[in-house]
Amino acid sequence: MIKKITDIFKEKDRTFSFEFFPPKTPKGIENLYRAAEELNRLGPDFVSVTYGAGGSTRGATMDICVEIQKRFDITVMHHLTCVGHSRQELEAVISQLKDNNIKNILALRGDPPKDVENQEPAPDGLEYCYQLNDLIREHSKDFFSIGVAGFPEGHIHCPDKDTDTKYLKIKIEHGGEFVITQLFFDNNIYSEYVERLGKQGVNIRVLPGILPITSYEGLLKFCDICGATVSQEVHDIFKPLNGNEELTRKAGIEFAVKQCRDLLERGAPGLHFFTLNKVEPTKEIWNRLGL
Ligand SMILES: Cc1cc2nc3c(=O)[nH]c(=O)nc-3n(C[C@H](O)[C@H](O)[C@H](O)COP(=O)(O)OP(=O)(O)OC[C@H]3O[C@@H](n4cnc5c(N)ncnc54)[C@H](O)[C@@H]3O)c2cc1C
Question: Are 181 and 190 in contact (CB under 8 A)?
């Protein structure tokens, strides 16, 4: 049954969801559908599909969302970034989402493609996520649930956490209805974030984004780009295992299970797993948590 995520919230105190990305090859896409099929058997509340930097996977994200929703009858959320798109292009995507009965959008600014510095917004384009929220609402008042990205440590290009909180609040005032966070490894960072938002009157659901660690070096590279802190605990556990895939995978599962249990005990309203299109380790973590 296809629902708006905010309607799922009315029925459930906690939601559990999986994130996929659009692969570049037909084989990768088939693997993704296999992974989605297997993970769907676990009974997630919704799944989401990312949008390539600068709109590079525009058609693929839409096709995958439509196919997953059709094959598995599960609620899907389409990520949509505004950077590099004209207003008209964004309106076209929003119309298509509605035509395809995709009821959930994770609205994002996105980042310019890696080789472009100081990219100007497209003529007639949008500069920030909150403007995309406006566009979605203008286009279709109540059809969509809109989620937004949250950065518990502050966005990498934001001067400080208070300014980041102020901008997050603007995204919510402009139609954002829930938050999915960037990855983090120290749960105090999450608790402090929720508290900071609460003090500013932002009391919507903040779903923690969970990355099961499968590669120490890969993690360092990713965190360097997105600005998330790799905690000392993570260095201590995973550095000695660097290069040993199997031991890293096992330790990644242990770490994620412990992190997720603690988050749920702290009252997190669910978990959003960055699956990297793999069944394992997300399935094992899910089973170990007894979800
Ligand atoms: C859960 C999650 C999923 C993601 N999925 C994708 C994806 O599918 N595709 C993709 O390309 N990227 C994705 N991203 C990455 C995201 O697009 C980048 O981190 C991007 O740099 C910020 O996007 P945003 O929507 O938070 O932007 P915004 O909220 O618009 O913020 C962008 C920058 O502008 C500043 N800012 C915000 N509002 C204002 C304002 N009112 N005035 C002045 N400055 C402001 C912020 O501090 C920040 O530095 C995802 C991130 C997360 C956490």
Answer: yes
